[in-house]
Amino acid sequence: MKICVCIKQVPATTEVKFDPATNTLIREGVDSQINPFDLYALEEAVRVKERLQKEGQEATVTVVCMGPPQAEAALREAISLGGDDAILLSDRAFRGADTWATSFALAQALLKLQPEVVFCGMQAIDGDTGQVGPGIATHMDYAQAPYVAEIEGLERRKILVKRLLENGYERCSVRLPVVLTVVKEINEPRTPSLRGKMNAKKAKIPVWTAADLGAPEEKLGLQGSPTQVVKVFSPPHREGGQKWAGDADELSGKLAGLLKELEIV
Amino acid sequence: MSIRIIDENCNGCGLCKRACPQMAIEVENKKAIIDLELCNFCGACAAACRFRAVAIEIEKQAREDLSQYRNVWVFGEQFRGKVAPVVFELIGSGRQLADARGSELAVVVLGSDLEAAANELSEYALDKVYLYEAPELAQYDGERYARILADLCRGMKPEILLAGATTTGRSFMSQVAIKLYTGLTADCTGLAIGEDGLLYQTRPAYGGNIMATILCPYTRPQMATVRHKVFPHPEKRNNAKPPEVVRLNLKPQLHTSRSELIEFIEQVEATVNIVEADIIVSGGRGIQDPSNFALIQDLAQALGGAVGASRAAVDAGWIPYAHQVGQTGKTVCPKLYIACGISGAVQHLAGMSSSKTIIAINKDPEAPIFQVASFGFVGDCLEIVPLLTKKIKAMRGQG
Ligand SMILES: Cc1cc2nc3c(=O)[nH]c(=O)nc-3n(C[C@H](O)[C@H](O)[C@H](O)COP(=O)(O)OP(=O)(O)OC[C@H]3O[C@@H](n4cnc5c(N)ncnc54)[C@H](O)[C@@H]3O)c2cc1C
Ligand SMILES: Nc1ncnc2c1ncn2[C@@H]1O[C@H](COP(=O)(O)O)[C@@H](O)[C@H]1O
Fold first, then answer.
1. How far, in whole angstroms, is CA B155 from its chain's centroid?
2. Is A199 part of any domain?
3. Closest CA to A219 of A230, A208, A210
4. Ligand nearest to the Cα of A125, by number
5. Which residues line ligand 2 (CB under 6 A)?
6. Domain interval for residue A163
């Protein structure tokens, strides 16, 4: 079985700040990392592969990332965590892509790879949209299962998943080929093995360009993106308010009074 | 596409350089220079420049006549006939947008047995309620729903399409946007019609550290998912004209799907659904062990709220992931958030700092949570919380 995982390289977003004095993004010294949700996607893909291999079936995990040349580091890390090979989509034509154009480019690459199962994270922590996974499925005309918390079974033609919703879980049977997006609950990612690290070092990571995808340029990158960012600014600043100390009885009394004032009780 | 610095306007101040997420700008001899190898035309430099020195031209134009598109649609997410609370919030916001555009506001509901939903919606200031009923639509199915809604949009051409940023809304609207080749802005916290008649969609990004305003100038509908609790629940329409309820007919070929629901496992406790709660009581590592979470649960129940948790509490296995607030959990925006024994790490703040009122109980007076808390209580939450619950019950008991 051919399995693909889409990972995004993201800045450690908690360090990205907006400087209201200069009206600019502060990104100096901000490290890049694999989007945390994608680590769960990768781990689940590797677990599925290992399970299939144990049953004597063939299975491989190919990791795909679209990003600038330095995103190769994220792919090497993914190989150290159990990915077999990796492909970097990198081309100036991909730049400035919104979720429409990102999922389009990734879908074109995946269509070349023809996986039976594609794993994505539930969302990326920089853009926080959660749109790319379902977008990929739609572009590829694959079935999809977003917010997967557990894979209950995988057969030749279908997959059984448990999806996490606001008010409970949904158990679904979905026909392959399929795109899944996973939530954190699904597993606990491993740390890289020694062998994984060796593989990561040796791996040759091909770079695919727009020409390799055979994709029309007007559907890629900024050109292909229906949305346009027109302004970036700082969120309203929040100040800490009054603070009280004292014994528990006193504080709980104050708190109860406060809740009454706030018309909560 | 082209980008260049207008040298006459540039004084080399470097604002654009700092704004550039690609680090594609250098300042030499008091002029900015853009490295076209690195630039991705994101426009951050132009937005940061105070001297109109960055010229970006994006040669894009509409592929069709956009004036055919009229009216504001809200996707009427419902579960077993009960309309999701966020839909009403969107009706409030959608009404303003429709009025600003001089157009109609409609809610579109897909499902089966929608009578009750239609009646409930008809109490609000809407122009139309579109109902599409079929037995296959009784349960939500992303593939089916997306195909149907996309087909409706192709035929009826709404100018704006809004949905709640629920798990359903986020994934399913993405499919619709792809099918229609139009833009979708996720998780908006602000919507307004600009002087140019376009929908200005504002949303947080980078874990709430920055805000971005996004347009969809050349394609329709302009689509957005909107965060819960950002817009107030609107007033009922009172004496205004009731909406027209329109039943739609479509081709059953649209109903196919490759996924099949086996079972829905509902978590009935009101304390679980944190995104829709007005009040959340959250516990962190300071709760110290799983049995103490009962204290949090009791307080939440006494207040009629839901139970949240920090990642530390979830990872310790004290409470299920569905309760986790923060960057890798849920983003919440309740009227009141009570953080008990939570330090206030940035990843946690990313999920709750837009709550209207924040109360923190923490025994460490230096805990970062106090920097965002509207009211801080320095003390032991294991002692304070049960006493508080008792006092609230007493207050409630007295009526
Ligand atoms: C990629 C990534 C994603 C993350 N995503 C999330 C996320 O989504 N949500 C999230 O919450 N975290 C997230 N984290 C983790 C985050 O960095 C913190 O580790 C976590 O929020 C800490 O939880 P805490 O405040 O409960 O625990 P701690 O930081 O250990 O704080 C416990 C607090 O309780 C106080 N305390 C102890 N005992 C008592 C008592 N008896 N009474 C009162 N106060 C007491 C202490 O003073 C302390 O301030 C993420 C981290 C990473 C790296
Ligand atoms: N540039 C990218 N390269 C590879 N995968 C991506 C990229 N952007 C998004 N994804 C995948 O789509 C998921 C959702 O991203 P988003 O819709 O941006 O929140 C991520 O968790 C990744 O699995």
1. 27
2. yes
3. A210
4. 2
5. A 6-8, 35, 37-38, 41, 64-67, 99, 102, 106, 120-121, 123-124, 127-133
6. 2-219
Q: Judge whether B260 lies within some domain.
A: no
Two tokens, residue A223: 């050109």
pTM here? 0.91
**A140 vs B254: which has the higher pLDDT:** A140
Strands B336-340 and B357-362: parallel
Closest ligand 2 atom to A123 CA? 19
Please give the Cα distance from B291 to A79 (Å, whole number).
Answer: 40
Q: A21 pLDDT exceeds 80?
A: no
- Please tell me the predicted confidence (pLDDT) of residue A196: 96
Inside any domain, residue B263: no
What pLDDT sits at residue A114? 98
Question: What tokens were used for A33?
Answer: 């990392």
CB contact (8 A) between residue B60 and residue A223? yes
φ/ψ of residue A198, rounded to 5 = -65, -45
Confirm whether the ipTM is greater than 0.85.
Answer: yes
User: Where residue B271 falls among pLDDT bands split at 50, 70, 90?
Assistant: low
Does residue A13 lie in a domain region?
yes
CB of B250 within 8 Å of a chain A CB? The answer is no
| pLDDT per residue as tens digits for the range A54-88 | 999 999 999 999 998 999 999 999 999 999 999 99
| Token duo for residue B95 | 């009404």
Of the pLDDT bands very low, low, confident and very high (cuts 50, 70, 90), residue B399 is very low
Gap between the Cα atoms of B340 and B371, Å rounded: 15
> pLDDT confidence of A252, banded at 50, 70, 90?
very high
Is B62 an interface residue toward A (CB < 8 Å)? no
Q: What is the pLDDT of residue A18?
A: 67
Same domain, B343 and B302: yes
CATH code at position B333: 3.40.50.1220
In A, which residues are within 8 Å of B328 by CB distance? 36-37, 125, 184
Chain B contact present for A21, CB below 8 A: no
β pairing state of B72-75 and B105-111: parallel
The distance of B195 to chain A (nearest Cα, Å) reads 14
